[in-house]
Amino acid sequence: MKVSFLGGAHEVGGSCILVKVCDKNILLDCGIRQSASKDPLPDFRTIQECGGIDAIIISHAHLDHIGSLPLISKEYPNARIYTNNMTKDLMKVLLYDSLKIMNNREAEIPLYAELDVENMLNRIFTINYMVELPIFEGINLTFYIAGHIAGAACVYITTADGSLFYSGDFSIFAQSSVEGLKVPKLRPDVAIFETTYGDRLHSNREVEEERLIQLVRECEINKGKMLIPAFALGRAQEILLILKKAINKKIIKGINIYVDGMIKDINRVYKLNPVYLRNSLAKKILKGVEPFYDDNIIPVDKKELREKIAEDKEACIIVASSGMITGGPSQYYAEKLASMERAYIVITGYQDEESPGRKLLNLLDSEERILEINGRSIPVRCKIEKVGLSAHGDKGEIKSLVNLLSPNNIFLVHGDGEIIEGFASELSSEVRGKIYAPKCGETYDINIRNPRKQWKKQMPNIIKSSEELNETNLEVLWRFVLENYSQRLFTVEDLIYIWSGNNKIKQEDIEKTQRLIMKCVYFETDLRRLFLFKAKTSEQVEEDTKERELKPNELNELVNEYFYQYAFKKAGLIYEEKKVSLSFDFPYVIDKSIYEVCEKFEGNTGWKVEISNKVNINAVEDLMREFLYDADIKKISFRLEDKNVIAILNSEFLVEKQKLEEFKEKTGLDLFLQNPGINIEKNLSSIIEAEDNAIEQNQALKLIDESFAEEEFKPYKKGVKSNGNRKYIELYFISPMIGERYKSKIKDLVSKTGWSMKISEASNQNEIIRFAAMLCKKTGINLKKNPSFNASELSVELKAESLEKDKIESIREEFEYKTGFRLKG
């Protein structure tokens, strides 16, 4: 076996390794160097001298592992490229973006054309984790989970002449978005390990995540701006999930988080490939839950918004690519924020020696803080912080993997020269294998006299059915697997083989079967690897097929998962109707996409979802007072039936039309200002006029009674009045706000009776006070005196003997619903 190191040895960048085994040349990764002072390409001359390449294997989608792939694939179009679905989709995003950047740079000739990327993508053959695939006669390839980023794989090649393990970039510990490395006890003769952090032990991940959250809170308190430059692939998703979790726990609140750059495209690919993500995250995505964005985490889709974020005084957090500030929006924001005293730049990942990110870190201990970026010298007044969120294994993790595999020949790559040499020296006293610290351009001829024996997956019992696997016969496969293999874990390919006896499986058949198995009751996924399945026990299947009533806590959890992005105020569970009632502050402006989510929820749970159209008048008043901060408000009148609210003012006040439009956009309500001497309220609550041909008075009053007989709220009094020209019927409800709920019914009665009608503006003060006192007594609230009625503010105030806030809160909604008045206390 011959191993040639063409890039990424004694350095970070341009990873590219040529392996010659069984007369076949196999290329492991094909990256670029992103440092401006180095040749971006690996040593392709060696490939030509060795007779070209027969296959290419890609470990993961970072540019230092794929950046020159279109170039070499164009040169050797017959070499098939092997990777997994996630990495293929990510490669498409990164390589097209890289091409766009090269085309936009002055005086730079792009390394490849768009057609080269397109042709290269068509040469990719995807395989799943833990599926052994013969890529040539006598040469088998298997991928294992590497951690690091979504789709990252450790590569294992087995042949009669020996076996080789290539770690790619890896991390043993799980992150928020992906599981950690999962490799069985393989038996490689040769192993190549990344050594990015071979000189250190990482700090505790949870401590670092907490530190990031505390920095965000500090920025929020100081009303500053924070830039978190992040690698678009991997690190950015980790940061967003950490921050979103803190928002959901209400640790972070009241500050917007903007997402800019290629991160948005990577987020989309993550959502399309949930089986490559951490189990908990994947399940949310499969249920239709948005994993990255919400009301506070906002994608930046327009240049105007980017400029507004940088120039406005608004406190905010910006997560933007690139991670080293070498380009992309992060460079734009860094130039703007660096000189701001209340700004923060938080570095979270590896920084190349010549990158602006590294220059910023070097300023931490510098007295003169000047940042040279984009040809400009910027005085640095912002706070610079470093948070360790590495996705690479540290010294301890690398040693653990080496000890697990115990290879006879160990190659250390992907790290600074000094780090690799120091780690090699330390490792040599702890392991028995030969240790090499290769440099770029070096070739090693490894004589493997006695290749280590490999463990073979045994599946002696198969069904060998000629039928296509479907929902009808899936139970047959389940019973067979349970009887012959108990609860052993299998890939989709394994299960297809057990069913059909066929080893040559089409990609579309794999995807179709995976969808079938994931939604069935007979198999379940492994807790940490969604691509592995095991047969459920008979008891589990019986329990799962039995109709079971969801418990309140289970239902509430599901409601939160499905609907949290719509910021609902409350979810009421109506068991007798199997219905969830969602309440919102401003139901008129809920995003219409909620109805699609309602359908998904009903399909998965059997529970219907009702969107309450009741407006939270407290929230409306709070927002209105915020909008009219300088206005002298005497009284607020709600006309929710007509979707309007009136601010009755003590002194004249003018407001811009734009403000009123913004209020309507947020609430769905029209805001009217009634200045002294003008009676908008009266105009809005005028008599509902009827045509002629009124029926007899008593008949009209009887028809009103009959019409309201089944309604929850009825007029407690009806009076016949005259406005000088003609008679009309005035309807008295407990309050006019309750009457407004029946405006459409009243309009219908006007049409049927021929009588004009009006909702009385009077409120039944005694009944409202009596109802408040009754609720207090029922709830055990001890009042110092009777509730205080305030007609101008449309409120009732309670004076309790002691702090009874929780109890008052428990009756507030019922009181406001049944009276239309606000409850204070």
TrEMBL record:
Ranges of residues in domain Beta-Casp:
236-360
Under Pfam families, the record lists: Beta-Casp, Lactamase_B_6, RMMBL
Q: Does the keyword Lyase apply?
A: no
Sequence ranges assigned to domain Metallo-beta-lactamase in this UniProt record? 13-231
Q: Which GO terms describe its molecular function?
A: hydrolase activity; RNA endonuclease activity
Which SMART domains does the record match to this protein?
A: Beta-Casp, Lactamase_B
Record keywords, A-Z: Hydrolase
InterPro entries the UniProt entry points to: Beta_Casp, MBL, Metallo-B-lactamas, RMMBL
Q: Where are the transmembrane segments?
A: none
PANTHER family documented for this protein: CLEAVAGE AND POLYADENYLATION SPECIFICITY FACTOR FAMILY MEMBER, INTEGRATOR COMPLEX SUBUNIT 11
Name of protein: MBL fold metallo-hydrolase
UniProt lineage? Bacteria, Bacillati, Bacillota, Clostridia, Eubacteriales
